[in-house]
Amino acid sequence: MLFDVNDKKSLKRRDNILKALDEKYGKEYICYLNHKNAWELLVATILSAQCTDKRVNIITKDLFKKYDTMEKFAGADISDLEIDIKQAGFYHNKAKNIKNAAIMLLEKYNGEIPSDLKELTSLPGVGRKTANVIRGNIFNEPSIVVDTHVKRISGKLGFTGEKDPVKIEYDLMKVLPKDHWILWNIHIITLGRSICFARNPDCDNCFLGNFCPSKGK
């Protein structure tokens, strides 16, 4: 049962879902990747591709001590950087992208992280997901981040029938009010980690059970 913006029942179900999520998890903006500034969040988000936030936070604890400025990342020996981030997986590409992103930011943006989506996605290793993490958490720009939890659970709730993350993002922009764009990712990550597991969702104990067309499936 896909969401229909022109259907009153669909709108009511959406509003009930958002209300239940707000009541359960609150409306505070939470970022699960440890960082002290926009650059550190950018690095952490690049590392988080195909890697858990928990592991990324373990890696960056020492990484941000060794490379405590953007300039140090830009001047890093690529082999050393690969070793430092190896546990994140895909470390050859990630190391190259992080180093080149630092160089580009220093040369083109004077070391400042841009807020514009097009400028962010022009950086090496930065796609829409990473850009939206930065826009939402650093600049408070309404943005929808489509990670594995959002992709899977948004589909289960009938908010999208798409599989491509960009198409899912656009679907959710139509379904969700702007004041819940950032919250959606925060809430759905929490739901996916605690109740709506990928392999064995705990539908019997899910507080969204009355509103989920995929309950028990």
What does this structure look like?
The model has no long low-confidence stretch (mean pLDDT 95). Helix 2 (38-47) runs antiparallel to helix 8 (128-137). It contains eleven helices and no strands. The chain folds into two domains: 8-29 and 144-211, Helix-hairpin-Helix base-excision DNA repair enzymes (C-terminal) (Endonuclease Iii, domain 2, Orthogonal Bundle), CATH 1.10.1670.10; 38-126, Endonuclease III, domain 1. The chain has helices at 8-25, 38-47, 53-66, 70-74, 78-84, 91-109, 117-121, 128-137, 148-156, 165-175, 181-194. With 217 residues, it is an all-alpha fold. It is 56% helix and 0% strand. InterPro entries: DNA_glycosylase, Endonuclease3_FeS-loop_motif, HhH-GPD_domain, HhH_base_excis_C, HhH_motif, Nth. It holds the Pfam family HhH-GPD.
CATH class of the largest domain: Mainly Alpha
Q: Which architecture of the largest domain would the CATH scheme give at its second level?
A: Orthogonal Bundle
How far from one another are the termini? 13 Å
Secondary-structure element order, N to C = HHHHHHHHHHH
Count up the helices: 11
Low-confidence blocks of residues: none
Q: Which of globular, elongated, flat, extended, rod-shaped describes the shape?
A: elongated
Outline the biggest β-sheet: none
Q: Structural class, from secondary structure content?
A: mainly alpha
